[in-house]
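User: My instructor asked us to take a sequence, write out its structure as tokens, and then describe one feature of it. I'm not sure where to start. Here is the sequence I was given:
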Amino acid sequence: MDQLKYIVGESGDFAIFSPTAKHSDVARQMMGKPAGAGFIQISMSEGHAPIISCYGESITIGIKSRYDIDAGYIFSGLFIDDNT
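Assistant: Let's start with the prediction itself. The structure tokens for your sequence are:
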């Protein structure tokens, strides 16, 4: 999958969006304050498990990626079912 942008909020909410959008524009639409931001790649391992890599930083909001912390919030939000 291609590189996308992301923001994770202080409460663990997150947004994944197009690389053509600005972090600052998306951050204004989120509830709460951004805690981590940068770029994200989502791929599949040979065993078909999702791999999420967060890295870099947002220049427009001045926040860096928290790497594995951000990836953990996003992984939990995308792939863990709370109804099990």
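For the description part of your assignment, you could build on this observation: DSSP finds two helices and six strands in the chain. Try explaining in your own words what that tells you about the chain.
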